[in-house]
Every structure is written in structure tokens, then in C-alpha cells.
Design a protein that fits this description.
Blueprint: E1 2-6, H1 14-25, E2 32-36, H2 42-54, H3 59-78, H4 81-108, H5 113-120, H6 122-137, E3 142-145, H7 147-150, E4 152-153, H8 164-177, E5 182-186, E6 189-192, E7 197-199, H9 205-215, E8 220-225, E9 246-248, H10 249-257, H11 268-274, E10 277-282, E11 291-294, E12 306-319, H12 329-339, E13 344-349, E14 355-361, H13 365-375, H14 377-381, E15 389-400, H15 410-420, E16 425-430, E17 436-442, H16 446-458, E18 463-470, H17 474-494, E19 496-504, E20 508-511, H18 521-526, E21 529-530, H19 533-543, E22 548-552, H20 557-560, H21 563-568, E23 572-575, H22 585-597, E24 602-603, H23 614-623, E25 628-634, H24 637-645, H25 652-661, H26 670-673, H27 676-688, E26 699-701, H28 706-709, H29 714-723, H30 725-737, E27 740-749, E28 752-761, E29 773-780, E30 788-793, H31 797-812
Parallel strand pairs: 1-2, 1-8, 2-5, 3-5, 4-6, 8-10, 9-11, 18-19, 18-22, 22-23, 23-24, 26-28
Antiparallel strand pairs: 6-7, 10-11, 12-14, 12-15, 13-14, 15-17, 16-17, 19-20, 20-21, 25-27, 25-29, 27-28, 29-30
Helix pairs in contact: 1-3, 2-3, 2-4, 3-4, 3-6, 4-6, 8-9, 9-11, 12-13, 15-16, 17-31, 24-25, 25-29
The structure holds adenosine-5'-diphosphate, aspartic acid (ASP) and magnesium ion (MG).
Aspartic acid binds near residues 8, 38, 123, 204 and 205.
């Protein structure tokens, strides 16, 4: 004997019902009980119709029509035209009775739980009848059973309690007599001893199947649904979730109790006592192994088996000085909730006894506040207790597993993961069974929390990084290309899964929650929506992805001014834009403080020396207790290019023009030649060394004539260079005469910083600097005479992009 249960999606339409028939036909048992749900979505529609009718809205009629159409079209598709009329007339007659009940509710403008159960029972009545007729027609030896004649309950409508004695007896007697191989019955529905229709609670078809399996000592209970088993987390919310191959009854019960909807929580109880295993399988992929639920089965070493959530929760708190030391307050509090059938899902009481806080369904919160305030009216009036406090839009998330109790540190890991992702925890409880740790969080954070926890506990440390990239010019597009090339390597070797979720340039922006294809991003971006920096931010915030990183590849001050919003929402910022770090010190400090407070790294390695690890090295020196005495550096790739190529055979004007054309300078070359860019860099190094410095504190010994500095467009600037050619030649001649080379040097010592052109003699570390290379000498307490030297290509889109990339990887390893 086998019991097979098929859920709503599995029987949603003719095509799916055909798959069900195939599974039943090949199930290899000579006695099979098939328990079916209503056609997917019908129970909701029936409840909608009942609700509309009882609130005297004529809208119930169109809902009824939809219910009618779904059933009639399923019959027409499934049943051969020759035998259709009998089935159609039975289905129509049942639908007529249903319509009469709805009309009744409409006329009296009221609905009782008993009438609601009666109405809702039509879902399973009709599905089981249609399916059994289809099985017969397909040649199966099949009989229809009205579940209400077998499953007996009390008359507690909407979630009745089963009378096991009667039910077991009914089932045993009925199936002892049953001759046919297959019996089809509806799940979820039952009847009271007086014969009224009752139901077993939403999702209750699983329970019906378990009751029948236990009554008949079935060999196995197979539950067919729309996913391949019980997963490590809801697969609809966590893509990386995996089916759990084998799990204990207790763990499965705990998972379902805390929200794994794939199994209705009471289902386990009847089969557990008989030791019947439950096999959860996928109707649409019946060859997948699914999940086997049996006694005491826990794979070795597994602590957390699953992560679940229950949504639509509310917290109800009672607090006040009058609660301390007065016995019986909790008793009265819980009593009044239970008297009104409000079930408490979650309890925390501070050890100070100053407050009690419980989690209940949000549907009950209004009523709960009212009855609790009423029950404590006297104390509230006397100011001993404050009126009850309600908080809504909450959810419970829970880690579940048998072996969790034997391991320390799991809750620490859980809460630090949530904290890192800016998920605010409202309350915490560790289940008395010690099989779960649960926390109450905002409903809007559920998806992020589940995914972050899943990553932490199940994904072999594969960490997903979600990038939002602003600016796709030279550097930005190289950066995207580098990610494209390295993605699979990073996933495999560094266990980092990098996804680009949003891209924007100054014209358009584009988002794809599943990750933008990096071979086709240009087209997607071109046809994207109009760019808008605050909308971009709002979108990132709304998506609320874990490990989100905002990447700024622009040189825009407007973009730099958005960093604080990102960091304040635990979104990391990586930037090659120097504006923020060289703005007022307070702004720079504020960004660093936000980064620390919200656990969101703020990295800007490329602000100095492009891809060279200058800032990171400096940070390590400082963190390990070293002190910077002096910094000497050549930090402008553009100026190096200019002074390495300028000589008495060329003109200064032509070399600057060439540098501009080859992309070695900013589009406005004056930013480089005036020394501003180098000032910003030495300012950032001075700040990172621990000094409070402003840009105006830096001395700029400019080599440009006053007139060139005062131009306000590129044409005038270049014209002035031409005009002063002789003074540039003079500088060159003077340096050559002293066997020196011209280098633009930045210096920092004793709290003072300066930038300017210097004649560097042979033998100096700067003398042989080639092309656009940068060099930094750090003189510190540990490197007082021989400085630590970092040298290499310090400009160019490729190396800058790889520097940004390196920052992203630092965050990945954070
Ligand atoms: P049926 O109608 O077949 O009874 P349900 O909708 O009641 O199906 O249950 C299956 C659904 O349960 C899945 O589609 C999935 O969205 C949800 N679910 C929630 N948590 C889990 C989990 N841990 N494992 C599998 N499914 C889950
Ligand atoms: N049809 C019922 C529901 O939707 C029972 C079930 O599907 O298990 O709740
Ligand atoms: Mg279900």
C-alpha cells in the first residue's frame, strides 16, 4: 500500500493532471491511495468569492465564473467527448450548489466559519472527482472516495481537530473492502460527527495523506509538489538552495513549523508514530531524488539543515514598572490571548521582567492589542503598565537543525551575518527544542537575510558580490571587461560570485536583478531608462541585495556626494574618483566613520597610483603600529609622460597635446599640469597616514606661468603654452646642465605637504622613472633610512580598472 499526494500546482490544469496520471500508473504498487489538492489557486478563489459575497459585493460573481471556467475547461480537455456529458453534468451540478451557497452569503451579508468551510470544500470535491474520472478513462482501475465520509473531525471550523479513532476505523474498513487498485480522494476536507463539512487548515492536504497512510500502515507516503524536495531554504527565494536528500522527522517538522511550506506542519505526527517514511518529490521532475524523511537521520557533521521564514508577523509587547516581581502577569497575558484563539509563535521575556514580547500573526494584532489593553485596564489606568505596543511588517527567520545544540558560535555567526548586511534584528529566541534559533526582522529584509544566511551556512563559502557600476567610460568599460574575463576563475578559485546588477552612464541606466550579461551590457545600457543618480541609489536600496557594492568610475562631484547614502545603508563603495577623499576633511572622515559603523568598506586604492597597492600598503603599515615620517612621490602619470618626452627637440605645447590625445591627461589637461591632481593624491596619503589636512594646506609651487593657470578653456590654455615655450625650454636646459631630469614631486613631512617641479639628479630613486610610472617612497619608523618603495605603471585605464577590481576582491575577502 502506498499513499501519493499531489498538491495544487501538480493538479492545476489538464496538462499537469496528465503527468500525475503517468506517475500513478507507474508507481508499482497494487494498492494506491491518491490524495489531491484543489486545482492550484482554487482555494484562494473560493475564499475570495466567499469574502466578496459576504461583504455584499457583486464581484463574487466574476470570481465564481473564473472557478467555473477553470473546472469546465479542465474537464473538456481531459475527458473524451463521448463520456464528457456525465462528468460535465455532475461538475455543473456541484458548481450550482456552490453558487447557491455564495448567493446565500451575499443575501444575508454574512458568513460563518461553517459556511466558509462548506464553500471552500468544493475545491477538493471537484478536483478529486474530475481526476478519478480521468484515471478511469485512461484505463486505470480507479474508484472515487468522498474524503468527508472517512476523515472525521470535531466541529471547529477552518482548522478542525481529527478524531483519529473514528477516522482510522473508517479508513481501515473502507480500504479493506476496496477492490480497485487506485482510490482518489480530496485532501484538506473532512466532516464533523454531525456531518458538516470541515477543513484541516490551509495546506492541509498533506495532512490528509499522512492520516490515511498511518491508518493503513502504508509502506511509504509520497508527497508530490512543484519543487524537488525539502530545500535548505525556499528555492523560490534563494536560488542557491539545494534539496536536502535525507532528514529526520523532527527536523522536517521544525522546518515546516518555521515556514517551509512544502510540508504542512501537522503532517509528520501521524506517520512518525508508525515509522512510515515520507518522500517529497517533484511532479514535474519525478526522476529527481527528492527528500526522504525518516527517523533520526542526520548527515554526519551537519549542524544547520535549513533556513526558513514566516512572514506577516507582528510583535506585541507589554511593559511597565508594575510588572516587576508581580506574579501572574504573564499568565494573564497568555491566557487572554489563548481565550481569543490567538496563537503565540514566539516569546521573549527580558530577565528584568520589565517586559514581555510575543510574536503573533499580523492578522491578529489589532484584536490582540484591544483584548490585552482590556485585560490590564486597571493597571494601565494606574500607570503600572503601559498600553500594549504593536509592531507590524515583520517576519521570523530561523536556522533549523538537530545538531545545532552541540555547537557553539552558530548564533554568533547568524547575527553577525545579519548585522553585516544591515538587517535589523527586533527580537531573538532560541527554540526550547534547541533545534532552532530564530530572529524577528523586518519583512522587507527577508530575501536578503535568507540569501546571506544561506551563503554563510551552505554555500561552501561562495560569496556573492552584487555590483552597481556608475561610469562606463575608459576605466569603467575596461573594468567590466576584466570582470567578464575573470568571473569563472574567481568563482572557482576564490569562491566569489561577482554579478553586475546595475550600470549607469550620464545618459542612461539599466538594472537586471539576475545579473547583467557582460558580453552585451552596451546594448542593454543604450536602451535603458534615463539616468538619474538618486533614482539609481533608490533602486540599489530597494533591491536590498546582500554584499552590495557601489562602484564609481566617474570624476563627478555629484556622484561623490552620494557615497554617504550608500555607506549609511551598508552598501560598500569602491571609487577611483578622488573628489570625496580630497574634499573637506570632515566629509572624508564622515565617510570613513559611516563605513565602520555600517560594516560597509569604503575603498579608493585607485585614487593614488592607479592599480599600485599604495593606500593598502600604507593602511597595513599604520594598522601594524608603524608611523609615517616622510612621503616622497612622483604621482602623476600624466606629468611623467610630459617631462619624460619633453626636450630641446620638441615643444612643450606639442608634448602636452600628445599626452592629451593619447589619454594620459584628464580631458582638461590643466587639472594635471596645474598640480591639482597631485595635490589631491598627496592629501589623501597624508590623511591616510593619520593627519588632518585640507587641500589649501598643501603648497603648490606651480611651474606654469600665471597666464596659463588663469585660462578657462583648452584652446586658451594651449595657446598660452605656445606663448611661453621659451620659459619651458629654459627649465629643461637648466636641469640638463646639472645632469638632472625634471620630475613633478609630491612631498609630505612633519604635517606639511607640497607639490612642485624638481630637478632630480642622477642616482636618485626618481631619476630613472620611465613613461607614466609612479613611485612612492615611504619613510617610516620602521623604514627610516631605506624607504619602502612602491613603483610601477601609475596611469591608464587598464591598471586603474584592475585596481578597482582589487578593491572589489578585498571586499569579497572581508
Ligand atoms: P503544494 O501545492 O504542492 O502542496 P505548496 O505550495 O504548499 O505546494 O508547497 C511547495 C512550495 O513550498 C514550494 O513551491 C516553495 O515555494 C515553498 N517552500 C518554502 N520553503 C521551502 C523549502 N525549504 N523547501 C522547499 N519548498 C519550500
Ligand atoms: N487546497 C488547500 C489549500 O490551498 C489544501 C492544500 O492544497 O493542501 O490550502
Ligand atoms: Mg502544500
Amino acid at each position: 500500500m502506498k499513499v501519493l499526494k499531489f498538491g495544487g500546482t501538480s493538479v492545476a490544469n489538464a496538462t499537469n493532471i496528465n503527468l500525475v496520471k503517468e506517475i500513478v500508473a507507474h508507481s508499482g504498487s497494487n494498492k494506491i491511495v491518491v490524495v489531491v489538492s484543489a486545482l492550484g489557486g482554487i482555494t484562494d478563489l473560493l475564499l475570495d468569492a466567499a469574502h466578496l459575497a459576504s461583504s455584499q459585493s457583486e464581484g463574487y460573481q466574476s470570481v465564481f465564473k473564473e472557478i467555473e471556467d477553470r473546472h469546465l475547461s479542465t474537464v473538456k480537455e481531459l475527458i473524451n467527448i463521448n463520456s464528457q456529458s456525465k462528468v460535465l453534468s455532475k461538475v455543473k451540478s456541484e458548481l450550482n450548489s456552490l453558487e447557491t451557497l455564495l448567493e446565500g452569503a451575499f443575501l444575508i451579508g454574512e458568513i460563518t466559519p461553517r459556511l466558509s468551510d462548506k464553500i471552500v470544500s468544493y475545491g477538493e470535491l471537484l478536483s478529486s472527482y474530475i481526476i478519478s474520472e480521468y484515471f478511469v478513462e485512461s484505463g486505470l482501475d480507479c474508484a472515487y472516495v468522498d474524503s468527508r465520509t472517512l476523515i472525521k473531525t470535531d466541529d471547529h471550523n477552518e482548522k478542525a481537530s481529527v478524531n483519529f479513532k473514528l477516522t482510522n476505523q473508517n479508513c481501515q474498513e473502507h480500504f479493506a473492502e476496496a477492490k480497485s487498485t487506485v482510490s482518489v480522494m480530496g485532501g484538506f476536507i473532512a466532516s464533523s460527527e454531525k456531518g458538516n463539512s470541515t477543513t484541516l487548515g490551509r495546506g492541509g492536504s498533506d495532512y490528509t495523506a499522512a492520516i490515511v497512510a498511518a491508518a493503513l500502515d502504508a509502506a511509504v507516503l509520497e508527497i508530490y509538489t512543484d519543487v524537488s524536495g525539502m530545500y535548505t531554504a525556499n528555492p523560490k527565494l534563494v536560488k542557491q538552495a539545494k534539496a536536502i536528500p535525507h532528514i529526520s522527522y523532527e527536523e522536517a517538522m521544525e522546518l515546516s513549523h518555521f515556514g517551509a511550506k512544502v510540508l504542512y506542519p501537522p503532517t509528520i505526527q501521524p506517520v512518525l508514530s508508525k515509522g512510515i517514511s515520507i518522500h517529497i518529490k517533484n511532479t514535474f521532475e519525478p526522476n529527481n531524488a527528492g527528500t526522504l524523511i525518516t527517523k533520526n537521520k542526520n548527515e554526519k557533521g551537519k549542524t544547520v539543515r535549513g533556513i526558513t521564514h514566516v512572514g506577516n508577523m507582528a510583535l506585541l509587547s507589554l511593559e511597565g514598572p508594575g510588572m516587576v516581581g508581580i506574579p501572574g502577569i504573564s499568565k494573564r497575558f497568555f491566557e487572554v490571548l489563548s481565550q481569543h484563539d490567538i496563537s503565540v509563535v514566539f516569546i521573549t521575556q527580558a530577565s528584568s521582567e520589565h517586559s514581555i514580547c510575543v510574536g503573533i500573526s499580523a492578522n491578529d494584532i489589532e484584536k490582540a492589542v484591544e483584548i490585552v489593553n482590556e485585560a490590564f485596564e486597571v493597571e494601565i489606568e494606574r500607570g503600572k503598565i503601559k498600553p500594549a505596543i504593536a509592531e507590524t511588517e515583520l517576519a521570523i527567520i530561523a536556522l533549523v537543525g538537530d545538531n545545532m545544540k552541540k555547537h557553539q558560535g552558530l548564533s554568533g555567526k547568524m547575527f553577525s551575518t545579519l548585522g553585516r548586511n544591515n538587517v535589523n534584528i527586533r527580537a531573538i529566541a532560541q527554540g526550547a527544542s534547541e533545534r532552532n534559533i530564530s530572529a524577528v526582522i523586518n519583512e522587507g529584509d527577508v530575501k536578503k537575510a535568507l540569501n546571506a544566511l544561506h551563503e554563510e551556512f551552505f554555500e561552501e563559502n561562495v560569496k556573492q558580490l552584487n555590483l552597481f557600476v556608475m561610469g562606463v567610460g575608459n576605466v569603467g568599460s575596461k573594468f567590466l571587461e576584466q570582470i567578464r574575463q575573470q568571473r569563472s576563475y574567481l568563482k572557482e578559485k576564490l569562491k566569489l560570485n561577482i554579478r553586475v546588477i546595475g550600470i549607469s552612464n550620464s545618459r542612461t541606466m539599466h538594472f537586471d536583478e539576475n545579473g547583467i550579461s557582460l558580453s552585451d551590457w552596451q546594448n542593454k545600457l543604450n536602451s535603458g531608462e534615463k539616468a538619474n543618480k538618486s533614482k539609481f541609489y533608490e533602486h540599489v536600496q530597494k533591491l536590498n541585495f546582500r554584499n552590495s557594492i557601489f562602484v564609481d568610475n566617474t570624476a563627478s562631484s555629484e556622484v561623490a556626494s552620494t557615497y554617504s547614502s550608500y555607506l549609511g545603508n551598508s552598501i560598500s563603495v569602491v571609487t577611483c574618483n578622488k573628489i570625496a577623499c580630497s574634499s573637506e576633511f570632515d566629509n572624508y572622515q564622515n565617510l570613513k566613520d559611516l563605513a565602520r559603523e555600517y560594516n560597509a568598506p569604503f575603498l579608493f586604492e585607485t585614487n593614488v597610483g592607479a592599480g599600485l597597492p599604495i593606500i593598502d600598503t600604507l593602511k597595513h603599515l599604520i594598522a601594524s603600529g608603524d608611523k609615517v615620517l616622510k612621503i616622497q612621490a612622483v604621482l602623476s602619470g600624466s606629468l611623467n609622460f610630459v617631462f619624460n618626452n619633453f626636450n630641446d627637440q620638441t615643444t612643450f605645447h606639442d608634448i602636452v597635446k600628445q599626452a592629451q590625445e593619447e589619454g594620459y591627461t584628464e580631458p582638461d589637461p590643466k587639472i594635471d599640469l596645474s598640480g591639482i591632481d597631485v595635490m589631491r593624491k598627496i592629501l589623501i596619503l597624508a590623511r591616510e597616514s593619520g593627519n588632518r589636512l585640507e587641500i589649501d594646506d598643501i603648497k603648490n609651487n606651480s611651474f606654469l606661468p600665471e597666464e596659463s593657470l588663469n585660462t578657462d578653456n583648452n584652446d586658451d590654455f594651449f595657446a598660452s603654452l605656445k606663448k611661453y615655450e621659451s620659459s619651458f625650454q629654459e627649465m629643461f636646459a637648466k636641469a640638463s646642465a646639472a645632469s638632472s631630469k625634471l620630475k613633478y614631486v609630491a612631498q609630505y613631512e612633519n604635517g606639511q605637504a607640497s607639490v612642485g617641479l624638481q630637478e632630480i639628479p642622477k642616482g636618485h630613486d626618481f631619476y630613472n622613472l620611465e613613461g607614466s610610472d609612479n613611485i612612492v617612497l615611504f619613510y617610516t619608523e620602521r623604514y627610516p633610512n631605506q624607504p619602502m618603495i612602491i613603483k610601477g605603471a601609475g596611469a591608464g585605464a587598464d591598471v586603474t580598472a584592475s585596481g578597482i577590481f582589487a578593491d572589489i576582491i578585498r571586499i569579497g575577502n572581508f
